[in-house]
Specification:
The chain is mainly alpha-helical and 398 residues long. It is 80% helix and 0% strand.
């Protein structure tokens, strides 16, 4: 390959990396915009807790349906058009939830939101796998850091909208337009051409080699979902923290997640992905142990930050490995592993309530920590060919 051609491909890869990172941020911001204003949506329709749960079930149902269909859909249309479709449906779902006039329409809107979120999620991860292949070294976790950054931006903007008493109809419509424009503009920078496996048989079963990666994603997402949904409840209920302090648990968790995801790829490449995953497991379990062993507000917040340090790289590296284990159809492989992960993200936190009713929330968190130990034993499944021992082959540092 001529030097000019090589550097042209590297510049194309850099541009695509920036574009995919922007789409990850859009996805995180869109979902956080909704999540941060759930109480406003509930108040607008005067929904009881039970009715809100029905709506949230619609969100979960839409997510699961889209995850099941995402692999075959992407085989047909490719990740570029998948991102455009997913972003359009997700951004349409935001104002749909805001303008829903009754519970049935609210449930339908959340189904749309769930479908859009999952389709966009799998599509952007599939294209991220293409960009990582073009780079020749792991960069997957860095993309997921931008999802967290977008989530913080979206939740921060939602907090301002709440403070300024901006109706959710105005907030969600404005956010949807802005985010869709950003996503559409970013897609222009994606890698050209078709994805590997695009146009082939859509319903080929993913190999059993992906099962361990699915379990790793499941465990990582259960831990993430538990902190997302229950950290504030734990701090206020178990440690008797004030409302202000209780909100710091998720914030500390998010900050450490972002920090580690920006360097996780390089750490996995330097020390080996198996070693990285085992150290990450030990750190995650140690964070849960700290939370459970010392139920004091400051220590628990620190424990949640430690959990973020550990769990941050598990899911993105598992998705990266899935795409590389089935290079002929990475979208289908990522969709299969994502489905396992999102099942943990959606079902895990829901099961926390009944389990805590039996053994208490403190010991339920201990159970989640024990579940993560599974990743230690499955870490060797992360190896992919000759690149597995150290994460990647030597490449130009781009």
């Amino acid at each position: 390959m001529a030097p000019s051609q090589f550097w042209g491909l590297m510049e194309e890869a850099r541009r695509a990396r920036t574009a995919v990172s922007a789409v990850f941020a859009v996805c995180g911001a869109a979902f956080a915009s909704w999540a941060a204003r759930v109480p406003a949506a509930q108040a607008k329709l005067d929904l009881s807790a039970g009715q809100l749960s029905i709506g949230l079930f619609g969100l979960a149902a839409g997510s699961v349906v889209a995850l099941a269909a995402a692999g075959p859909v992407l085989i047909k249309i490719g990740s570029r058009r998948g991102v455009l479709c997913g972003a359009t449906v997700l951004c349409a779902g935001l104002p749909f939830t805001a303008f829903a006039a009754d519970l049935p329409l609210f449930v339908a809107a959340l189904v749309v939101l769930g479908i859009g979120n999952s389709l966009l999620d799998v599509s952007m991860n599939a294209h991220a796998a293409r960009v990582e292949t073009a780079y020749g070294r792991p960069i997957f976790a860095g993309f997921h850091a931008f999802w967290n950054i977008g989530g913080l931006a979206g939740s921060g903007a939602a907090a301002l909208m709440e403070t300024w008493h901006v109706p959710i109809q105005v907030h969600f419509t404005t956010a949807a337009v802005v985010l869709l424009v950003l996503a559409a503009g970013a897609v222009a920078g994606f890698l050209p051409g078709a994805d590997r496996g695009q146009g082939e048989a859509a319903f080929a079963l993913p190999g059993k080699v992906l099962i361990p990666l699915g379990v790793i994603a499941f465990c990582g997402f259960v831990a993430e979902g538990t902190i997302n949904d229950w950290s504030a409840v734990y701090l206020s209920g178990v440690t008797s923290a004030t409302a202000a302090v209780a909100s710091l648990g998720y914030f500390a968790f998010s900050i450490t997640m972002i920090a580690v995801r920006t360097v996780a790829d390089r750490l996995a490449g330097r020390f080996g992905v198996v070693t990285f995953m085992r150290v990450a497991t030990a750190v995650t379990v140690g964070g849960f142990l700290l939370v459970v062993a010392v139920p004091v507000p400051a220590v628990a917040v620190a424990g949640f930050a430690v959990v973020g340090l550990g769990v941050s790289g598990m899911v993105p590296l598992a998705w990266s490995a899935a795409g590389r284990k089935q290079p002929d159809a990475p979208a289908r492989a990522i969709a299969a592993v994502a489905a396992c992960g999102y099942f943990g993200f959606l079902a895990g936190p829901v099961l926390i309530g009944p389990l805590s009713g039996g053994i208490g929330l403190r010991w339920t968190f201990a159970v989640v920590g024990c579940l993560v130990v599974t990743v230690h034993f499955l870490a060797p499944a992360m190896r992919v060919g000759d690149r597995s021992a150290r994460g990647s082959a030597p490449t130009a540092d781009v």
